[in-house]
Amino acid sequence: MSESVKDAPPKSRIDYEAYEKTPQFLHMKKTRNRFVVPLSIFFLVWYIAYVLAAAYAHDFMATPVFGSINIGLLLGLAQFVTTFAITMSYVTFANRKIDPLTEDLRGELERMEQR
């Protein structure tokens, strides 16, 4: 088999670049972005605040809470907790909101391909 045939993209009847501009696709992207963008900004601010506090607020981060556990350690563990919480909330959101929209889009694309 020649290289040009092996590397050629599969033939399709669908103009995917045009399909990305359809109202249904744009609605799915807008729905996803309304959830993802604020949550991403929140997490980045929270992470940067933690790093800055660790770098510049040594006394605050070293404040003991109980025993040898200090605020810095608790905030570091909270980073892991928020990461898991964000992941679980996105999975829940995607299952409820995004997946039904993508199923509709996939069905429409499959119908278009069969024509």
UniProtKB/TrEMBL annotation:
Keywords, alphabetical: Membrane, Transmembrane, Transmembrane helix
Transmembrane residue ranges: 35-57, 69-91
A UniProt-annotated Pfam family: DUF485
InterPro entries: DUF485
Record keyword Transmembrane helix present: yes
The organism's place on the tree of life at top rank: Bacteria
Protein name: DUF485 domain-containing protein
Organism: Cryobacterium suzukii
